[in-house]
Amino acid sequence: MTLAELQELHSLPFFDLLKRSHEVHETHFPDGKIQLCTLLSIKTGGCSEDCAYCTQSARYETDLKNERLLSKETVMESARAARENGSTRFCMGAAWRGVRGGTERFNQVVDIIKEVSTLGMEVCVTLGELGPSEAVELKNAGVTAYNHNLDTSPEHYPNIVTSHTYEDRLRTIRNVQDAGMSVCCGGILGISETITDRLRMLEVISSFNPQPESVPINSLMPMPGTPLANNPQVDPFDLVRMIACARIAVPGAKVRLSAGRTRLSDETQALCFYAGANSIFYGDKLLTAENPEAGKDRELLVKLGLETLESNPALEAPGADGALPASPSRDGKMCASGGCC
Fold first, then answer.
1. Which CATH superfamily, name and number, covers 3-303?
2. Quick one: three-class SS letters along 133-182?
3. pTM of whole model > 0.85?
4. Which of 173-177, 195-199, 285-289 has the lowest mean pLDDT?
5. Domain boundaries, the chain
6. One of 20, 37, 47, 247 is an active-site residue; which one?
7. Using one digit for the tens of pLDDT, what is the confidence trace for 255-267?
8. Which of 16, 95, 97, 216 can pair with 258 through a Cys bridge, CB separation 3.0 to 4.6 Å?
9. Given 54, 185, 272, 341, which residue is catalytic?
């Protein structure tokens, strides 16, 4: 979708927008099931990047305790517990700028992935930048989806991260798609962006060919010691509008209600599900931030009459055939066939 189309959507009266997004949601996900995902930080802190929202950056003075790469046994213990608690996707994140094939740490991660992939869950990882050969190796090891968020618009991005570029992000996403993995790509609300920045991010994401398999929408949880520590909370209605716009812009994707749920009421989460969210992170922690307790999530889903999605470890990455055509970039030129503006 183009920015102009997204702006027209976003400006609709609240209930008109929800009606449209719910219709799209019912068309593409008629069973209405919610996917439960668990996220584990397998290597915490000490990152060389300067992402302004992140406690894992070595450049900021925070209370976060750095941890080396977890052992395969420790990761497997967490993965088995996630499966027993109903999660159908197990996501592993490492605080690195990126990974390079042939190194000890990359080989260790590949070994962990191979073991986790035997548990019958979808396997997602986020390891920073990837080259083409590393992406292929991760795919062959059993990775179902690779998470690499754009965070915000191309225009606002330099205000949030200076240690790598937007183009670096898009290059990794292209490498992931070329390797045959699904892409999990979304952003963060509340990082001093404008409404236009939020919609520009969706414009870029919706132009990917193929479109992402999942789109996480995060709300900033301001962390002491980071440059964005004093940012205000995202307005709940703004969050719901973004969920609705994401559902319409990327109709076939799972829209994941991600970080920031500890600050949301049950009623706000219910509106998000109605607007098109159909995936949540499930468990007590999101990398370094708190997350609602699993029992509370289960109670809410029961109240709403929502069932949970079954695991699909054989999930195939979306193909480019039949994907939405690339959207124009801001200068009016068409995006490349890779979908990266």
1. Aldolase class I (3.20.20.70)
2. HHHHHHHHHCCCEEECCCECCCCCHHHHCCCCCHHHHHHHHHHHHHCCCE
3. yes
4. 285-289
5. 3-303
6. 47
7. 999 888 888 999 9
8. 216
9. 54
